[in-house]
Specification:
Number of domains of chain B: 2
Shape of chain B: globular
Oligomer: heterodimer
Largest sheet of chain A: 2 strands, antiparallel
Number of strands of chain B: 20
Number of helices of chain B: 17
Strand order of the largest sheet of chain A: 1-2
Helix content of chain B: 25-40%
CATH topology of the largest domain in chain B: Rossmann fold
Radius of gyration of chain B: 25 Å
Distance between the termini of chain B: 39 Å
Number of helices of chain A: 13
Largest sheet of chain B: 6 strands, mixed
Strand content of chain A: under 5%
Largest interface: A-B, 30 and 48 residues
Distance between the termini of chain A: 26 Å
Helix content of chain A: over 70%
Radius of gyration of chain A: 20 Å
CATH architecture of the largest domain in chain B: 3-Layer(aba) Sandwich
């Protein structure tokens, strides 16, 4: 019998790569160009720093989401877990707790949430979508119950001052994101875990047959996503000087998934870069800003972002099939 | 009885590089069961796909009841009265028998809705003719394998076919269920149906069939009344007289067996295999020989730690002595080349380099940084590419751009780099052309020469005879024979179909 091995031509594979890498940059240039022409004083240092500052927490969450998407999964619970850890850390500070310990609490809660997701996905073989949707509901429910929907105020001033400080004139969250994203990007390409992550995402069975500890990789990935939810919580609570369940509302999930996808991370797993996801976070933030300046409602913004994400996924799936 | 209802004349079909059917003539009469036999690749599947309207023949004529018919698609085949009962149970487990039988087209009421009543009445009627009493609303998942097979047959009978083709229908049946199936097939024969029965199991031919037709290399090798045939005759027809003596590949290591590297005692996995005992020595190639569905792939996967086992013990040579290992740890000691490159062999989107290093990454870490030492990774990949002569346009190119043979060599290099004491290969040359096949086979031999213990599965007897030092024959989940290097083709084939090994002089 004739074998039906379909071989992809180099040209087609090359086109896939181009779509993944060029699209986010093209979108970025397009939006920056549009803003540059239509908005006065867009290219001022202050304005640019402002956009980056707004993008920073989203960027952290997008890094976590990217790792999960690369495995072929999804983590819908990142914003809700972020809100819960922000609330609990803030309550600790409100009762006079040490800001460093409070930050560690936020990170730890994020990782516990991620570990629960990872346990269910990796070891109990549950579907990531269902698992993380449930975790999201649980975390969100806990947020509202704990706070009665009242913002947690009274954070330690030194916490706010340190997180929102400036290094050489640039707000610390931006510097932190740049440094962390660079480290993660390098590790994703050069570390053992990074290689395993992509291998599991491209073909989990091939990886398993080749001796890659698939379950550990999956578990670790969800814990990693939880860690970044915790880091995002630190930045957001400091920026708002408070914590509230609304930090994790539904629009944020859209922003996080959107950042990764617009940044060229494939929802089919196996491809995408962390740097791209951070760029995606900046793009998503700018889209929100444009809509704000055009005095469109929050809900209209949701529609536009939803459409942008669907468009990018459509391009991704077309290039996959080619 | 003697009326010829199906006549195939000079059917030819070639695929790029392969002549699958080279002038097949076949006649089958109403009221008879014709066995169609042949080794893998003999052309059985292609011939049946032609009859099913799935593959289009290049030339030839198909006549049913004396009239020439054209089968351009499966629907036309069905309309002309040809029905298939497939070996794979293509049923929807959560739906009812009725739904499964009518899924491709329900009877409708005048208002366009499904007429379930009519469907169920017809469904019960067909089931009754098969001697089945299950209510038509029974869900498939609550049926056993035998009843499911009956539903498959009932589905085939719905269209009132003249010709029914059974494609290895017994592979998942118990012997009681088999007896029942044979009774049904006999009653279909009595009602005047023409039945073509494809099987690997020779005993079934003698139990059930009236005539047999043996295919070999796309041609009719022979056949005749089953009453006039015996095992040896059929086996010889399947193999061809000319190639009874296969020259082994160069082999000087025979007789110089070294220490046992893997010892398996009483290994079992419910529903797949049981009581597996084997020993592998370093420097030998052992052929795990058996038919498709005999449990050979399941055994291989379990040995490699890919699937869990229910019982038994595995010991592996560690630091000079055999030590018990957990099945989950088997991956550390045993490398596995699975039977499907695309499904679980390659990272298609990834580069040649990353595919080669995949199993060895923990050994490629830099001594100080938590990074993979890419320099070492590249030099290792380059070494293996050169050693196995992998034709490539650069190791950073996606592995999907390579030809099948070179892709397989990439997987081979992956294990060469890790160099586990035991290597299992399930169909290592599947889908490769002749040149690539020979090359992979000689690589396997030289690997054993370097001291690896290798367990090979292949559906091709020439291949397994060409590379193995000895054989373990699997039949229905058990090792039924251990044969030495001087085993003949006949011995292997007869053992694999469950008969006592015979030796022809």
């Amino acid at each position: 019998m004739a074998s039906r091995t379909e071989t992809r031509t180099p040209a087609k594979l090359e086109r896939n790569r181009v779509v993944g890498k060029v699209l986010p940059i093209a979108l970025f240039v397009l939006i920056v160009g549009f803003l540059g022409f239509t908005v006065d004083h867009f290219f001022t240092t202050n304005n640019l720093i402002n956009i980056l500052l707004q993008s920073s927490a989203l960027g952290f969450m997008a890094i976590g989401m990217t790792a999960v998407l690369i495995t072929g999964g999804i983590d819908l619970s990142i914003p809700a877990v972020m809100a819960l850890s922000g609330i609990l850390g803030s309550m600790y500070m409100r009762s006079g707790g040490d800001p460093v310990v409070a930050s560690l609490i936020m990170i730890a809660i994020g990782m516990v949430g991620g570990a629960l997701n990872g346990l269910a996905v990796a070891y109990l073989k549950m579907i990531p979508f269902v698992v993380t949707l449930s975790t999201q509901a649980i975390a969100m429910g806990a947020c509202v119950m704990i706070t009665n929907s009242v913002s947690v105020l009274g954070l330690s001033q030194s916490f706010i001052d340190v997180v929102m400080s400036r290094l050489a004139g640039i707000p610390t969250p931006i510097v932190a994101l740049a440094v962390v994203a660079t480290i993660v990007a390098v590790l994703s390409q050069k570390s053992l875990f990074g290689r395993w992550l992509y291998a599991v995402g491209m073909n989990a069975e091939t990886a398993r047959v080749s001796g890659v500890p698939k379950k550990k990789v999956l578990f670790g990935t969800y814990v990693f996503a939880g860690l970044f939810a915790g880091l995002a919580a630190i930045i957001i609570t400091a920026r708002l000087s408070s914590a509230a369940p609304t930090m994790g509302q539904e629009g944020v999930v859209l922003n996080v998934v959107g950042s990764a996808v617009v940044g060229g991370v494939s929802i089919y797993g196996g491809s995408g870069s962390f740097a791209g996801a951070v760029l995606g976070a900046v793009i998503i933030t700018m889209i929100s800003n444009i809509m704000n300046m055009a005095h469109l409602s929050y809900y209209a913004t949701l529609i536009v972002k939803g459409l942008v994400i669907v468009a990018v996924v459509a391009i991704d799936s077309r290039s996959k099939r080619a | 009885m003697t009326k010829t209802s199906l006549k195939l004349s000079d059917i030819r079909k070639s695929f790029p590089g392969v002549i699958a059917l080279n002038g097949i003539n076949l006649e089958a009469s109403a009221g008879e069961v014709l066995a169609l036999i042949g080794a893998n690749g003999a052309g059985k599947s292609t011939l049946m796909n032609v009859l099913g309207g799935i593959v289009h023949m290049d030339s030839g004529r198909i006549e049913i009841d004396g009239e020439t018919v054209e089968l351009r698609n499966p629907l036309e085949a069905k309309a002309t009265g040809i029905a298939f009962v497939h070996q794979e149970m293509a049923l929807l487990p959560t739906m009812s028998i009725t739904d499964n039988m009518y899924i491709s087209g329900y009877p409708r009421k005048a208002n366009g809705l499904i007429d379930y009543k009519a469907a169920e009445i017809r469904c019960s009627a067909v089931l009754t003719t098969l001697g089945c009493s299950m209510p038509p609303r029974t869900k498939i998942k609550s049926l056993g394998a035998g009843d499911r097979q009956m539903v498959e047959i009932a589905r085939a009978l719905l269209s009132d076919p003249k010709i029914i083709i059974f494609d290895e229908p017994t592979s998942s049946l118990s012997s009681a269920e088999k007896t029942r199936l044979f009774a049904v097939i006999r009653s279909l024969r009595e009602r005047g149906s023409t039945i073509i029965y494809i099987t690997h199991f020779l005993d079934e031919i003698f139990a059930l069939c009236d005539r047999a037709l043996v295919l070999r290399n796309g041609e009719v090798a022979g056949g005749g009344k089953v009453a006039d045939l015996d095992y040896e005759r059929i086996v010889k027809l399947m193999l061809g007289r000319t190639d009874l003596d296969t020259a082994k590949l160069d082999r000087e290591r025979a007789g110089s067996l070294k220490e046992v590297v893997l010892k398996v005692t009483d290994l079992g996995q419910k529903g797949s295999f049981e009581g597996i005992n084997l020993e592998l020595h370093s420097g030998e190639v052992v052929g795990l020989w058996g038919l498709l569905g005999s449990g050979r792939s399941e055994i291989a996967r379990a040995l490699a730690g890919l699937d869990p086992v229910d019982s038994g013990k595995m010991e592996v040579l560690t630091k000079g002595s055999l030590k018990t290992m957990r099945s989950a740890d088997a991956k550390k000691w045993i490398g596995m080349i699975t039977e499907n490159r695309r499904e679980d062999g390659l990272l298609s989107q990834s580069s040649i380099r990353k595919n080669i290093s995949l199993a060895s990454l923990p050994f490629l870490m830099s001594s100080f940084w938590p990074f993979i030492n890419e320099k070492k990774e590249k030099s290792e990949a380059a070494r293996l590419i050169e050693r196995l002569e992998i034709k490539n346009a650069g190791m950073e190119m996606p592995v999907a751009t390579l030809s099948g043979g070179n892709q397989q060599k990439v997987i081979l290099s992956r294990w060469l780099q890790k160099n586990p004491p035991v290597l299992i290969m399930d169909e290592p040359t599947r889908g490769l052309d002749v040149g690539a096949k020979l090359e992979i086979q000689s690589r396997i031999s030289s690997l054993a020469g370097d001291g690896s213990a290798i367990l090979v599965i292949s559906s091709e007897i020439e291949e397994i005879m060409g590379i193995s030092d000895r054989y373990l024959v699997i039949y229905k989940g058990r090792i039924v024979a251990e044969l030495g290097p001087d085993a003949s083709k006949e011995e292997l084939l007869t053992a694999a179909v469950g008969a006592a090994p015979v030796r022809l002089s």
